[in-house]
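In the design runs reported in the main text, the only information available to the sequence generator was the tokenized backbone. The following block is the verbatim input for one such run; it is reproduced so that readers can re-run the procedure and compare outputs position by position.
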């Protein structure tokens, strides 16, 4: 019972927000329509049950007039039933797509809000493969919730409708054993109940492992699909390294998990199907066995017998709802566990950010100020520290240090996506910051949109974008602004870095952070781009991370992360007193 209450509470927590959201009236209206139609279908089932009595009695009595009228009556009922089922399906699917759209937007909003997706990845939260949870699990949850909810409603209403009928038929066709009538009130109801309870208990005993097996299967499938996509995205590197055998081995290993777990599901389903199929076939003949003695004792007519069998089957099917829906229930429960884990991971990321020891605040000056800043790794190990360090306006600063000292992590903390540590980072109010990593990101689509990302494609004119491309040394791409492509895959890393500089020229941020953003270019090209930034963005504060000594010529100030105990400390390095050529006015 605790497991049932927990499952229902989880389903309620995931499902109910939609029906209280901005689309609530449409959602509630569609759900109400689906429920009303389901109740009408149950009402028609009751009428079909009564029709059985009259129709089969007419056959037994060879009453052609009644037979003809009942055929017409059946056609009327069947037409109404078909119309109801068609519109129930249509309205159900309409509700599904609206509900799914709302849940997808909600999960996308939570996942992509304030770098939650990045922090979830850093800490290895249990929300593996968020793409699957958003794209697939939401659809499965909605579909299974509606199917099980409507099915359960049908079972309850059908049971309530037919128990009364079956109880009355039990009195009309009393139980006969060895030629004697045995007066057991409602014996047909008790027979259906005992039959269903035994079947449900055995089904749960056989099928309960399917919940965990389905959960693992979804995870293995998603992992395999993710690594296939990863191999496609890194096709060039794999080909250059001749890494195809290694990739094939890893992919085969991951698919081995898929196949092995699927075999477990197959074996469990074989046992479950063997029982449920036997149970289903036995349920066809079981009511005839109970009623046949009364029929042959001429206590009930053929119509009464057929009505009794139909009513018994309806009651038995209602009581056996969990047997027929067990596989769906197992899949539904595993999907809920995945969605609950995803929501919990998002909440954890939000709480981690809100309770972060690294505080970002407005600066009282025109500079970024680091005070008592101490950054750690996600596990808590100390990484780097900075105290009293400022990045002033219109300043060119180069940060150097050994690999792993925390240079890129410092940039992440300034950007507000690294919550691990303590101290404060003061940033001028309304200041615009742009981070250019070594491998910039370009969304798949038009080249124009990829360059101006994250702004809208029409934020800058075609002439502005083309001019930026020519400035950074990519005049050939200026003619391809409307071309669609996967630019991170089709362009070399050097070309991508030039596009990153073009993006910075267009956006003209107040603070530009270059994390080895020109490392793939030759030194003359790198020098030309730094001079371009100096000329085009004279009011921008530029902070660079790099390992080339040639970068020093383009920065007035050097800072270094050097080892100090268990961490690295950021401090200024002394520069030569003579002026640096090529940076007048910077």
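Verbatim output:
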């Amino acid at each position: 019972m605790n497991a049932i209450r927990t499952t229902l509470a989880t389903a309620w927590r995931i499902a109910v927000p939609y029906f209280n959201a901005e689309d609530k009236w449409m959602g509630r209206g569609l759900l109400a329509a689906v429920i009303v139609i389901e109740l009408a279908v149950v009402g028609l089932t009751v009428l079909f049950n009564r029709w059985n009595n009259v129709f089969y009695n007419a056959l037994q009595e060879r009453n052609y007039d009644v037979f003809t009228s009942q055929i017409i009556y059946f056609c009327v009922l069947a037409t109404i039933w078909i119309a109801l089922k068609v519109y129930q399906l249509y309205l159900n699917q309409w509700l599904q797509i609206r509900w799914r759209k709302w849940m997808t937007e909600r999960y996308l909003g939570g996942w992509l809000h304030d770098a939650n997706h990045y922090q979830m990845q850093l800490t290895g939260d249990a929300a593996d493969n968020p793409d699957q949870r958003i794209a697939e699990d939401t659809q499965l949850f909605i579909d299974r919730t509606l199917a099980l909810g409507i099915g359960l409603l049908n079972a309850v209403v059908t049971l309530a409708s037919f128990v009364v009928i079956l109880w009355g038929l039990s009195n009309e066709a009393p139980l006969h054993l060895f030629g004697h009538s045995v007066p057991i009130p409602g014996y047909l109801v008790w027979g259906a109940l005992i039959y269903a309870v035994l079947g449900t208990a055995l089904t749960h005993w056989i099928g309960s492992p399917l919940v965990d097996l389905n959960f693992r299967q979804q995870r293995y499938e998603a992992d395999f699909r993710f690594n296939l996509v990863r191999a496609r995205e890194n096709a060039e590197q794999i080909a250059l390294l001749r890494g195809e055998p290694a990739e094939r081995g890893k992919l085969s290993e991951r698919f081995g998990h898929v196949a092995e777990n699927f075999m477990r599901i197959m074996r469990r389903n074989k046992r479950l199907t063997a029982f449920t199929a036997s149970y289903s076939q036995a349920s066809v003949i079981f009511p005839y066995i109970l009623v046949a003695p009364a029929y042959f004792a001429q206590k009930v007519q053929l119509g009464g017998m057929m009505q009794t069998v139909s009513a018994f089957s309806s009651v038995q099917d209602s009581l056996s709802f969990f047997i027929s829906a067990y596989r769906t229930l197992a899949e539904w429960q595993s999907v809920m566990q995945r969605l609950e884990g995803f929501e919990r991971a998002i909440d954890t990321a939000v709480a981690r950010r809100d309770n972060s020891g690294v505080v970002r605040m407005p600066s009282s000056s025109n500079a970024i100020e680091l005070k008592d800043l101490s950054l750690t790794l996600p596990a808590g190990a100390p990484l780097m520290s900075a105290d009293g360090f400022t990045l002033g306006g219109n300043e060119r600063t180069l940060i150097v240090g050994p690999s792993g000292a925390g240079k890129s992590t410092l940039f992440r903390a300034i950007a507000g996506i690294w919550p691990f540590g303590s101290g404060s980072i003061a940033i001028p109010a309304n200041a615009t910051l742009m981070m250019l990593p070594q491998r910039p990101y370009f969304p798949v689509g038009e080249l124009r949109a990829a360059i101006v990302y994250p702004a809208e494609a029409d934020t800058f004119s075609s002439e502005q974008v083309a001019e930026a491309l020519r400035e950074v040394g990519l005049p050939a791409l200026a003619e391809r602004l409307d071309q669609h492509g996967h630019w991170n895959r089709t362009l070399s890393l050097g070309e991508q870095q030039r596009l990153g500089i073009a993006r910075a020229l267009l956006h003209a941020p107040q603070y530009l952070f270059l994390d080895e953003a020109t490392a793939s270019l030759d030194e003359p090209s790198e020098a030309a781009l730094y001079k371009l930034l100096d000329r085009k963005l004279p009011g921008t504060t530029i902070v660079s991370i790099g390992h080339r000594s040639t970068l020093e010529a383009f920065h007035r100030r050097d800072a270094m992360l050097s080892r100090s105990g268990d961490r690295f400390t950021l401090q200024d390095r002394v520069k030569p007193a003579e002026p640096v050529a090529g940076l007048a006015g910077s």
